[in-house]
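Example is below:
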Amino acid sequence: MPKTVVVGAGPIGLYCAIIRARAGDEVIVVDRDGGPVDGDWQRRGVMQFRHPHFFRPAVRRVFEQTAPDLWDAVVGAGGIPAHPPGAPDFVTGLQSRRSTFEQAIRGAAAAEPRVTLRTGHADAVEIASGQVTGLKVDGGRVDADLLIDATGRAGRLGDDLRPAGEGGPCGFSYVSRMYEVLDDAAAEELAGYGYPLAKLHEGYLVIVFPQDGRTISALIVRASDDEALAQLRDRSAYDAAVAAIPHMAKWTEPGRFEPITDVLPGGGLSNTYRGQAQDVRGLFFVGDSLCTTNPAAGRGVSLGLLQAERLLALIADDATDAAAAFDAWCAEEIKPWFQDHVYWDATLLRRWRGDDIDIDAQIPSDVICAAAEVDPSLLSVVMPYTAMMAKPDVLAPAADRVREILRTGWRPPYGDGPTRDELADVIAAREGTLRKSRAAVAAVPI
């Protein structure tokens, strides 16, 4: 029986394991995280595990076409199919916490015949005569005919076996906090949207993510070098900020919403792209170990599953030739998403620093999407793009129409509430109040 080893027990690695096992392989999944313990799961090394998620329609499409029981599993675990009112059926994503999603997929993998979950650290790939033969795990050895690296953005396994990556820091950092929805009317309203609720502001971005289990996550995105807004990592600064931003205040109001996590920082975010190892047969890289994009846009799991679906189809046809074919496919189908985000992020940061949109240059994707609010005819290209059912180049025919709109003076609107400088003042004022309070306490005789 052929042996496949998958390194990384996140959603992409487990999906690969399940599909290879159903193809007849004996599969071992290696991850240093041992899974939930007494209902608690810390998910070591996965920064985004507690941060907000929205699973785009591409996730549903991959599951329903290749493993429909996995879609049933995440919905059965509490994930909520999310369909914006009036949108076509293909624009159906999933509102779910990452923890709910991962536990459902992990449960399916644990129940799958021929899949073994093993806790351990992957040390090195073993190769003989240009062919993968195994994996060193905690000093021991696991035999392998195929090895799939799904270790994620921080993985370093096999770095010396493939080309250096492109890209780097995306320029953004964020903080988030998760809340339980206490108010029935708020829960009903949130259920009706079918997508995250984002508001662009002058110098920052806020997004409210409806999730499963009557929970939401509230996210504030800032430029990574913005030291004043970096104070949002402090709970009192975060609370002062969300109270000052009307969109956030509505969805975090005490009595209607109750925090169930502390403020969670998200940093070290990047847009990167790497190819496959061309000189080693049976070795493949997939998911965030191949491509990462700014996670605030929620593309990671979708891109990973699109890759995994294609890779597994190629392996099923001819494992000996699959790496080159997969590399070429990714350059055509995945790399454009990386390039799209590099440009989107760079132009948004310039706008936050005071630059206007260059109408004669390439129009950024976020501007085209925002322009659909002015001209709904643009939705015919915007919806397939946001659903990740079509590549970014689907937006190209809309660019000239958006230029016409921009020449009227229209710009993507900012949400009600403080500018970046005003928000920094809110945070500074709260810090001054805290200093006075500490001084008063220190002056009290003991």
About this structure: The chain has 14 helices and 20 strands. The chain has a mean pLDDT of 93. The domain at 3-167+270-337 is CATH 3.50.50.60 (FAD/NAD(P)-binding domain).
